[in-house]
Amino acid sequence: MTHIDAERLLAQYNEIASLAGGLAHEVRNPLSTIRLNLDLLLEETERLDHPSAHRMVRKVKTIQSECGHLESILEAFLQFVRAGELSLEESSLAELLRSHVETNKPLAEQHRIDIRPHLSSDLPSLAVDRRLMRQLFDNLFRNALQAMPEGGLIEIQAYRRGDEIVIEFIDTGAGIPAAVLPKIFQEFYSTKPAGSGLGLPTVRRIVESHGGTIQCESEVGRGTRFTITLPVASTTH
Fold first, then answer.
1. What is the pLDDT of residue 236?
2. Which of 45, 162, 178, 206 is 20 to 30 A from 87 (CA-CA)?
């Protein structure tokens, strides 16, 4: 594929992503109106003293729950679309990771999870989108959290290797079956009933938009390791 072909494909992809993002915004607005009216309907129905009112309340609550699920899918999709829109600024990766650990430590402790950072002292600053980097780290943290319902350990390692920075998120969770592992970065693929299937694809898109790569190694019953590499001279594509 020539450079011109690659640029044309990227332009087409960005156009489709922009249209899809606009559509998601258009769907979210009427969905919010539906949620508001359901709240009002529930308030009125709960005041009724009639056996049929109790059935109506249950049905309204079911619809509310499904609307909430739709809203979470839309939000996840919008995050996926925005993952390629970078606003770069020179940033300390070590500072971003320390901030991530401090922010999420209370939640980790609630779930009986020990979160340990191991950050090399020679990490250089990178031109990154700080908002998207925080989203990337948060998505990997939540992924590890869900894999350890009984508690465990999350280790975050970051070090320089030649002309790239390596970041590793390692957990002692349930692990990912070998048959599932090749699919985890596919859009809309999820093993969770309420999952959007966009968490890890969004992580991958954020990494790749910064010119990096992401890999996953996992063993059932032993845990999972996500390895991210970012070029020291960060470039976008």
1. 42
2. 162
Do the Cβ atoms of 136 and 207 come closer than 8 Å?
yes
Domain positions in the chain are 3-82, 89-231
Side chain identity at residue 178, one-letter code: A
CA distance to 159, 208, 220, per residue, from 230 (Å): 11, 9, 28
Tell me how far CA of residue 49 lies from CA of 37, 55, 179, in angstroms: 21, 12, 53
DSSP string covering 105-168: HHHHHHTTEEEEEEE-TTPPEEEE-HHHHHHHHHHHHHHHHHT-TT-EEEEEEEEEETTEEEEE
Q: What pLDDT is stored for residue 19 in this prediction?
A: 62
Give 203's contacts (C-beta < 8 A, 6+ positions apart). Answer: 136, 139, 140, 185, 214, 226
pLDDT profile of the chain (237 residues), mean per 10: 53 61 70 84 82 82 81 70 73 92 92 94 89 90 91 95 94 93 84 71 88 93 95 60
**In angstroms, what CA-CA distances link 103 with 96, 109, 228?**
11, 11, 21
pLDDT at 76: 66
| DSSP string over 109-122 | HHTTEEEEEEE-TT
Q: Which CATH number, 3.20.20.70, 3.40.50.1440, 1.10.443.10, 3.30.565.10, labels domain 89-231?
A: 3.30.565.10
